[in-house]
Design a protein that fits this description.
Pfam family, one: SPA
Low-confidence stretches: none
Strand order of the largest sheet: 2-1-5-4-3
Family: Belongs to the DENND10 family.
Largest sheet: 5 strands, antiparallel
Oligomer: single chain
Number of strands: 14
Mean pLDDT: 87
InterPro entries: FAM45, Tripartite_DENN
Shape: elongated
Keywords: Endosome, Guanine-nucleotide releasing factor
Subcellular location: Late endosome
């Protein structure tokens, strides 16, 4: 039953033939701030065509899955003759874009047939209570078909490595040391931005933590405040001016230019040693990470709580290059091997 309770709500936004955008339905309730947030993300108010039919974003520890459909181009619009576009949003606590994209599609098909939000509510409650939503005509959905690890594994690491080459080591280092990563891609390539941001946490696969991902962030006060409340993250932006916001990142990843910039305050953390160069040349990330952590554990002693404990003095005794020593100690702290 706990798995069924990840859903937190649903909402429907419509654009009519007069160009007016209205929030027409929600369940159980949506705050004014949430409405403003979703309306900004769904893009129905914009004059330019939206580049992605489905997007996902995180704000205040809730995931928003938004599916946008063009009703006017569907031919027979049925009961929605006065509607040109519609956006359905599902709010949830868990990260699983493929799961919620499928559910959005099914619920929207039902809505386009009936023109009544009741059909959305019926499907939503069926998933929330039974974990399934079955309709022979509009498709079948079952929570049991979606494992979160499958969502974690849907990544484009090879593409990232091809884009940035050996500089990918900077992204890897930022992930391992729990730094703040800001990724930029122009708005017309929003789908690519979503794919890149969801892929980066796989560089630290052993943590299996996708709650650090903020795939699509606007640089307004409410969103930047939410971002800065986190100690580390992977955030995606479509505003080029974000590169000047060094208060928001330790490294800035520019996808179209294939460049990675380090914020001045973070230069020391990204000093490269032979260890980094070895990993950069190999880029066999999962294997190298496992080897790296095993080596750290071998240097550590066992603390009173039975967990590995490593001191800076232990590393200094190994007479490593300063950059390597600094990286390994910072990594040990991030992994909980250092007693603070």
């Amino acid at each position: 039953m706990a798995a069924f309770m990840e859903l937190r709500g649903a909402g429907l936004i419509e654009k009519d033939t007069n160009g007016d955008v209205l929030w027409t339905w929600s369940y159980p309730s949506v705050s004014a701030q949430q409405r403003d947030y979703v309306q900004l993300k769904c893009g129905l108010s914009g004059e330019q065509p939206y580049p992605a039919g489905f997007i996902f974003c995180q704000w205040r520890q809730v995931w928003y899955y938004i599916f946008r459909a063009d009703i006017s181009s569907a031919g027979d619009v049925g009961p929605l003759s006065k509607v040109t576009e519609v956006a359905l949003v599902l709010m949830s606590r868990d990260f699983n874009p493929e799961k919620y994209e499928t559910l959005c599609q099914i619920l929207l098909r039902q809505y386009r047939q009936t023109g009544s939000p009741t059909s959305i509510l019926e499907g939503y409650l069926s998933v929330a209570t039974r974990g399934t939503c079955a309709n022979d005509e509009n498709g079948k959905f079952s929570l049991g078909d979606y494992d979160r690890r499958q969502a974690y594994a849907k990544v484009c690491l090879k593409e990232i490595i091809q884009t940035f080459g050996v500089e990918t080591i900077l992204i890897y280092t930022a992930m391992m040391l729990k730094k703040r990563i800001l990724i930029y891609c122009p708005h017309h390539s929003l789908s690519q931005l979503l794919q890149y941001t969801r892929s980066v946490p796989a560089l630290a696969w052993h943590r299996q933590n996708w709650n650090i991902v903020y795939p699509y962030v606007h640089l307004d006060e409410s969103e930047t405040e939410d971002l800065t409340s986190a100690s580390h993250y992977v955030a995606g932006v479509t505003e080029a001016s974000a590169e000047g916001r060094t208060d928001l990142y330790d490294i800035f990843v520019n996808i179209p230019n294939s460049q990675i910039s380090i914020a001045p305050h973070a230069k020391e953390s990204f000093a490269m040693g032979k260890l980094h160069k070895d990993i950069a040349m190999a880029m066999e990330v999962a294997g190298k990470t496992k080897e790296l952590l095993n080596n750290l554990k071998s240097l550590a002693s066992t603390g009173d709580d039975g967990k590995p404990s490593l001191t800076l003095e232990t590393l200094k005794a190994r007479k490593m290059p300063p950059a390597t020593e600094n990286f390994l100690f910072s990594l040990a702290a991030c992994e909980g091997f250092v007693q603070l």
